[in-house]
Amino acid sequence: MLLAKKMPSLVRKWPKGNYYLADQLKRALASVSLNIAEGSAKSCLKDRARFFAIARGSAAEASAIIDIANAYNMIDPSTYEEFQDKLLQIIKILYKLQ
Question: How far is CA 48 from CA 8, 25, 28, 65, in A?
Answer without folding.
Answer: 30, 24, 19, 26
